[in-house]
Amino acid sequence: MTEKPLKVKTPIVLTIAGSDSGGGAGIAADLKTFAALGVHGTCAITSVTAQNTTGVLKAFDLTPETVASQIEAVCTDMEVRWAKSGMLASSEIVREVAKEVRKHELSLVLDPVIAAEAGGNLLRKEALSVLAEELLPFCKVTTPNASEAGALAGMTVKTPEDAKVAARKIADLGVEAVIVTGGHLDATDLIYEADSETFTRVPGTFVKGGTHGTGCTYSAAVTAFLASGEDLEGAARKAKKFVEQAILRSRPAGRGVSPVNQLGAVLEEKERYLVLRELKDAVSILEGSPDFSKLIPEVGCNIGMAIPEADSYEDIAAVEGRIVRHRGRAVSVGCVDFGASRHVARIILSSLRYNPEIRAAINVKYSMELLAACKEMKLGISSFDRAEEPENTSTMDWGTAEAIKKYGSVPKVIYDKGGSGKEPMIRLLGGCATEVAKLAVELAEKIQ
Ligand SMILES: Cc1ncc(COP(=O)(O)OP(=O)(O)O)c(N)n1
Ligand SMILES: Cc1nc(C(=O)O)sc1CCOP(=O)(O)O
């Protein structure tokens, strides 16, 4: 009997929303979010907007029948339990969506989209009361920001206290839970659950970056997490973190507000995994070499590698506790992890500013013989002199930059002859950790 491969069932979710030709908000944001969070996204388009990062120029609403047919097509074929709605444009579309939600017993997360932040109405004025009275009562969750909460509750929301009052008023319209997002208040989201009459705060941090599509991304992430089995608080916490990461990873696009980057957060996780794997291989190369231990300095050796676009110690993986010599062999003291190095990490961070391709480095023991071997291998060599270091600088930062400037580009080898209480050192730099590990082993084999 042949075994069938085990397949995990992927939740299928639906977004009922408008399209944004600029690719930042609406269904583009929703589908990217669903993909990033590992659920299968389907869509029913309500309106086609001619939009970019500076605002909505025009909107072409589809007929309610067109919206309904899309929902029918998806829900009669696939098992959809969780859905979200975004731009619903008109009273007619809102009513049609309410009908479909009831018919297919969808658990709906309603993002009460009223206008684009950069400018442009996305819901006709008269449709707000229809949304509040005819759709909201059939929703599980709604995710207004401060101004949307104010519009739904018929008040102004300027403080976290106002948000509490508004959340209760919105829940009185019949929705099971209200999350007032705090991006425009104090960065804390407020969850109100109607049946238990409880408030839960979800604190966050204001992060810098493009924010176009934030509201859509947040509600899509809440939907994806709920569909994946999270409870409401878990979904809200995870969605908030996801949006913060997506803002941080945003890329400049257009003349207005840049779109968030939903895949950035996920791709970074993958990069971190690849760097750790690469570094483990590099450590195995060093530990497996009978010669490498000769190159370990008194202070120990470390090898590090950065994720692309690294800008802090936490973006550089290295060996916890460094690599030391034990019974004539190289032995790593701890595991490989991000944030485990200061010296080697600073060398990498400094050289990244000159060449983003050079993402790895290792420090080895200084000797004339080793330098001669580097020359023999025709490696680019440069150096710095600690005696010339200005006050109040980091030696690794300054020294690396000095050596690079002197050489004209990032060399393979940077050495210094030490200083008072400072051991002389050679650093080998390269594109990845296994490259510098192999180079170190090759050099070790050349010397006595
Ligand atoms: C087609 C479309 N739908 C929704 C919005 C609003 O998006 P949101 O995520 O609230 O983000 P900003 O408009 O604030 O960037 C939209 N603009 N277009
Ligand atoms: C102490 C020391 N100095 C180095 C230099 O290159 O001058 S490398 C080094 C050891 C590695 O340190 P870490 O674990 O902080 O990267």
Summarize the structure.
The chain has helices at 26-36, 64-75, 91-103, 127-135, 146-153, 160-171, 214-227, 232-248, 262-287, 343-352, 368-376, 395-407, 433-446, and strands at 12-20, 40-52, 55-61, 80-85, 107-110, 139-142, 177-180, 189-193, 198-202, 303-306, 316-319, 323-326, 329-332, 336-338, 360-365, 381-383, 413-416, 425-430. The protein is α/β, with parallel strands linked by helices. The chain is elongated and about 85 Å long.
Give short descriptive properties of this protein.
binds the ligand Cc1ncc(COP(=O)(O)OP(=O)(O)O)c(N)n1; L-fuculose-1-phosphate Aldolase; binds the ligand Cc1nc(C(=O)O)sc1CCOP(=O)(O)O; UDP-N-acetylmuramoyl-L-alanine:D-glutamate ligase; elongated; 448 residues; alpha/beta; seven-stranded mixed beta sheet; 18 strands; 13 helices; 2 domains; 21% strand
- Span between termini: 60 Å
Compute the gyration radius: what is it? 28 Å
Alpha plus pi helix count: 13
Structural class: alpha/beta
Q: Would you identify the CATH architecture of the largest domain?
A: 3-Layer(aba) Sandwich
